UniProtKB/TrEMBL annotation:
The keyword Hydrolase applies. Its EC number is 3.1.21.-. This is 5-methylcytosine-specific restriction endonuclease system specificity protein McrC. It comes from Bifidobacterium favimelis. Keywords: Endonuclease, Hydrolase, Nuclease.
Length: 363
């Protein structure tokens, strides 16, 4: 697996991972992160450490998030619910105390615990001494936060207006813990140079959607569900069809499936071809979306695209196909280029599909 992962990762500039994160989580485009944007990083652990260091500093200026935390302990001045049976069992009464259950408005929250644990992981990793020093200085502010086993964390979290500033921080922690830590045969862990494929797949998808949302406000960019075109409305047991990225302007629709694979093509008898399952999937999305618009009786053009991250393979997919009245294209995005080149590639997709297609509809 190590060789397969390297085929994609060696094509990516570390600095471009920052830009991908910045579009996936818009908070990274704020003033406080500008220094991070200009740094050169040797590995993704360094990058994540820099983002987390700046992010935690910003959060500390606001104040660490607090929440009501359940406490159970023996108290001389009772509060909350008194537990008489526990008071007797623990001999608290002999010390003139009572065991009480109560809520405390505390910084000892799960999210702060995750931050503290991830900071410790990064301090123990292969990053610069100056960065480790900066992270250690932050730990002082977490003295009232409990230590946890980071590998047992439940990453399914709910965000609201009270903890919204933690969304990006928790995602960076998740990337570090789930994407960079690798267990060795002797049971120890080490930091990988890059996120694993699964984490990069999700980041790649979020980046493309975030890019179009920010840089092309003239388009409606989202990841909506696509309805099955059913004759009788019966849809029990049918899988949901959720697009990675759908771009819409008027009657012009482009559905993009973002693909981050170690191998962008399949090989049969020494012949390279597009992954059949990927092609079937995007074709299904396009035809069902078109059927939905046809029912609305509005002029429309629906196209689909498979957008692969470029690997170091000799053959990579690049083609435009006309299938049953729809255009299906297969492209690769070169993440190893300077970011302005990536920007141009993404902008060209908009130019090709929403300038040309608009003229087709109008005629």
């Amino acid at each position: 697996m190590g060789r397969q992962v390297a085929q994609v990762h060696q094509m990516i500039r570390i600095q471009n991972i920052y830009y991908m994160l910045a579009y996936a989580f818009q908070v990274l485009r704020e003033q406080g992160y500008r220094d991070v944007a200009t740094e050169e990083f040797t590995n993704t652990a360094e990058l994540c450490a820099a983002i987390l260091e700046q992010g935690v500093k910003t959060q500390l200026k606001r104040g660490l998030g607090r929440a009501y935390v359940d406490r159970t302990e023996a108290l001389s001045s009772p509060r909350g619910k008194i537990e008489l049976s526990e008071s007797v069992k623990t001999s608290a009464l002999l010390r003139r105390q009572l065991v009480c259950d109560y809520d405390e408005f505390s910084v000892d929250t799960p999210m702060n615990q995750i931050l503290k644990a991830t900071i410790k992981v990064l301090i123990g990793s292969d990053i610069a001494k100056a960065r480790k020093k900066g992270l250690r200085q932050l730990l002082v502010y977490f003295s009232d936060v409990s230590d946890i086993d980071i590998e047992t964390v439940d990453w399914h979290m709910r965000f609201d207006r009270n903890n919204q500033t933690y969304r990006m921080l928790m995602n960076v922690c998740w990337l570090v813990v789930e994407g960079l830590l690798q267990t060795q045969s002797d049971g120890t862990t080490r930091m990988m140079d890059f996120f694993d494929d699964q984490r990069m797949y999700h980041l790649y998808e979020k980046f493309i959607l975030g890019y179009y949302k920010r840089e092309h406000p003239e388009l409606k960019a989202g990841a909506p569900n696509i309805k099955w075109a059913l004759d009788d409305g019966f849809e029990d047991m049918l899988p949901s069809m959720r697009s990675d990225i759908t771009l819409t302007r008027g009657g012009t629709v482009l559905i993009i499936d973002a693909k981050y694979y170690s191998h962008t093509t399949q090989v049969h008898f020494d012949r390279h071809s597009v992954h059949s399952s990927n092609l079937y999937q995007i074709f299904t999305y396009v035809k069902n979306k078109e059927a939905e618009l046809e029912r609305e009786r509005k002029p429309h053009v629906v196209s689909g695209m498979l957008l692969y991250a470029l690997t170091d393979e000799e053959a990579h997919p690049d083609g435009v196909y006309q299938m049953s009245g729809n255009q299906i294209s297969v492209k690769t995005l070169d993440l190893g280029q300077p970011f302005h080149v990536i920007r141009n590639q993404l902008d060209d997709i908009v130019e090709d599909h929403f300038i040309t297609s608009t003229k087709v509809i109008s005629t």
